[in-house]
Amino acid sequence: MANRKIAAAAACILLAAAVLVISACKDVAGAEAPKRNIMKPYISVQPVSASYHVSDTGTTAQLSFTIWEWNGADGALSYQWFTFDTIKDYCEGKSTALTEKTPIDLDTMVDSDNNITIAFPLSNITPAANKQYFFYAVVTNTNPEAGDKTSASIQSEVAVISFSADGEPLVPIIVKNPVDATYGWGDTLNTLRVEARSASSGGTLGYQWYTNDAFSTENGDALTGETQSFLMPDYEDLDVDENYYYVEVINEEGGKKSLPARSIPAIITMEPGQKAAAPVITVQPKDSLSFTGGQLGELTVAGTSPDRGTISYQWYSNTVFSSKGGSAISGAKNASYTPAVSNSAAANYFYYAVVTNTNTKVKGTTTATAVTSVARVSVATPADASVPVNVYLTIPDPKQDPNRFQYIRGYGGMDVAWGNFPRTTREDTELMYDPDRLGYNMLRIMIRADYVDPAETINKLLTGDRPDYFENVKIVNKYGGYVAASPWTPPKDWKSNNSINGGGNLIKKYYPLFAQYLRNFAQLMYDNGAPIYCISISNEPNYVAGYDGCEWSPDEMRDFYLEQGHFTDGIRGYGGGREIPYVLTMNGESANTPTINNAALLDPRSRAVIDVLARHIYGSRTTSLWNDHPELLQKGDPSEQNKGRLEVWMTEHNINSANATGYYNDSRWDYIWRFLNDVDLVIRLNNENAFVWWASKRFYSMVGDGQFGTVDGAVLPRGWGLSHYARFTTGMTRIKINLDTTGGKTNITKDGTTITHTDRATSSLNRLIDDMDNDSARVTAFISEDGSAISMVLWTPTKTNGSGGYDVGTIRVAFPDGFTANGVTAVLSSGGAANQLFQPYNGVQLSTDRTMAYITLGKSQIVSVKFTK
């Protein structure tokens, strides 16, 4: 939503009258589209090759191609047939026109299914053994009213008519040739593929791929072992230039082999990279803890080059917990480094490494760097066995399924593109997504629909009040985050109410146009250096908005996926610090219950093209797909942490005080707990994988906007609270914690409250209830994928007036069998400490054998701890 219920109250008080009128509550100016660019023609059914024996009589058949449902308003079509004698001639541009350019008359040439079929007779070809004839068609669209150019053309697949001697195997038929591609040096390469079939029922196809130094199928070099219908080009065989690949396909039948059918060569153009790519850090240095007098541990880092450059290292020391402003350590240029500091007294030391990638095959800067996370090297005294313990907790075996929950993708906020919302600047985004600062990694952006061309809409934003639209995405990508893009509505031209406002649905015949609109948006982001990770089909399809909105029924969403398939295929995405083969698809993000997506999930064909599920928690807050409908989430997802399930992201919620008088409270420390209860609902109670807040920058959000007592660009308490989760749990899996009562242990908090159980509706620890003012103490634990780190987030909420809550005292946490902590990093936030996260916390100790931790947790505090092996 955004402009409704609770969210509406906060959104609607921006100006002097304390009433905010959202620009989305009225039609966006300029919704009438300007001239559309020329529509590139398309061929729906390609001309089909054929193979005959010389004595066959069926060679009077005809070639044809078909165009489905052309819209005459997009321009006038014409066609022309061509032929060539050999592939060599084709490669050299020696084709001959067989027909004049012929107009397509839509009044007379369209059949009852609204399709156009263009035929070409083959009666004039002469059968001869080992003879091949080659044909293709060119279709042109002409539109004098187009806004960019007046015509555009497309060439069909080459159709080959082949003849074999009687008694010999028929030449195989190449249905689809491998496709050209252009890459910058170091880009991820796509697989080359040929589609071929045997011309007889008993034939078996064989393949051999070749590379060549010219656009030709003569004198190529056979690639050893490349005998499949596909080929992944090897960088070792490539030059910064044009590289040529083709494939020969033979048909074997009855112990005989046919003459080969050769594909049209595919040109793989390798251009110099623009600049060296930032290295990918695969191994981060780990915190280490040594007891006084013990041996200091070794720090290790590893990095890889995404563009096939050379990796080097430089270690730095620092006086604070930061990977900025340190001093280079002379001679420390290896992947490992052992600190040369005293271990005689308790102290903390901080180290990080700069990883450099050097690539000389680029146009611009030949080096790029990435900075590791900070490693805290501690020298400490072990916990005294006589330390009084208030609460005893144990972490059971995290490898067992009952003790493991969901993988945590991350945390972040929404960058709102409505003009009445504050601008999120590059400085704001750096503050939120820099891992040394707030450390968020999830950004949701808005796909506005002012025009039918997303490029025009984005240009309007860039030249207006959102000049950082691309740059904010680039910053998130730079830090290895994930960007989700959400449309509130399709362009009004395609809706039943002819308005961008809610109260109308997407007309079914425009499904293909909307799918292409989303593809165009994703491609536009990629082309501008701001690729996204995933894209949804609708914000809140089950909410009738008085501003930008569009309603979808569950069946309509299912049908959209069934008809349009995985519409982002071929559009490169980016997330987690790496380029991915395609932008992931996301469902319609429900305003409340996520079960509106059941229709799409229950149909295996539509479920197969949904990559990520998203929901909002404005209603049906505790309805969870993970908890209530696990059978709907079985899919071969690449995330092994999720055991093959689709991830479920909570991509929007907003709570605030709902009136101008109360808005000053939303940035106070005591109001942080309502926000953290929301995070706890999503992560602990609903088992969802991500938490994204509406919005990133607002007086009720993570960063202030200058209103209601907040400072523009300053971190608010809610910002620090979310940072605890972001910095300590992202990329980990939530695991179980048990209350330990063995041997007569009593669990009594420092303020005298007895804890008899957890995870129940009446618990004073981890109360199992959805209550925005839940004041039970909260302790959650998380483990890294490789089991080398355990993080804990602990907090003791109060009511909004500061009452209630618990002073827990000292918690003893027993690690699972086999886990011994060699490193500890802990931070504290509290109302009395200027709400700051980066306050190293010394209220955490380890037992001598490193199998237990002692954590002190007072009332109205947030403590986060990371233990590393």
What does this structure look like?
- This protein is of the alpha+beta class and 869 residues long.
- The protein has five domains: 50-164, Immunoglobulin-like, CATH 2.60.40; 173-271, Sandwich (Immunoglobulin-like); 286-381, Sandwich (Immunoglobulin-like), CATH 2.60.40; 386-405 and 732-869, Golgi alpha-mannosidase II (Immunoglobulin-like, Sandwich); 409-731, Glycosidases (TIM Barrel, Alpha-Beta Barrel), CATH 3.20.20.
- Helices cover 12% and strands 30% of the residues.
- The longest helix has 17 residues, at 511-527.
- Terminal Cα span: 44 Å
* Mean pLDDT across residues: 89
How are the strands ordered across the major sheet? 39-36-35-34-33-42-41-40
How many separate structural domains? 5
Instruction: Give me the secondary-structure category.
Output: alpha+beta
Could you describe the largest sheet, including whether it forms a barrel? 8 strands, parallel
Which spans have pLDDT < 50 for at least 5 consecutive residues?
A: 2-33
- Shape-level CATH architecture of the largest domain: Alpha-Beta Barrel
Helix run count? 12
Q: Bin the helical content.
A: 10-25%
Q: By CATH's scheme, which homologous superfamily of the largest domain applies? A: Glycosidases
CATH class of the largest domain: Alpha Beta
Secondary-structure blueprint of this entry?
Blueprint: H1 5-11, E1 50-53, E2 62-68, E3 76-84, H2 87-91, E4 96-97, E5 102-103, E6 115-121, E7 132-142, E8 151-155, E9 159-164, E10 173-176, E11 181-184, E12 192-193, E13 195-197, E14 204-212, E15 221-222, E16 230-231, E17 242-253, E18 256-257, E19 261-262, E20 266-271, E21 280-283, E22 288-291, E23 299-300, E24 302-304, E25 310-318, E26 327-328, E27 336-337, E28 347-358, E29 367-371, E30 375-380, E31 391-394, E32 404-407, E33 410-415, H3 426-433, E34 442-447, H4 454-463, H5 469-478, E35 482-487, H6 511-527, E36 534-539, H7 554-564, E37 573-575, E38 578-580, E39 584-589, H8 598-602, H9 604-607, E40 612-616, H10 625-628, E41 647-652, H11 672-685, E42 690-693, H12 717-729, E43 733-735, E44 738-739, E45 778-783, E46 789-795, E47 809-814, E48 823-830, E49 844-846, E50 852-857, E51 861-868
Parallel strand pairs: 1-9, 11-20, 22-30, 31-47, 33-34, 33-42, 34-35, 35-36, 36-39, 40-41, 41-42
Antiparallel strand pairs: 2-6, 3-4, 3-5, 3-7, 7-8, 7-9, 10-13, 12-16, 14-15, 14-17, 17-18, 17-19, 17-20, 21-24, 23-27, 25-26, 25-28, 28-29, 28-30, 31-44, 32-43, 37-38, 43-45, 45-46, 46-51, 47-50, 48-51, 49-50
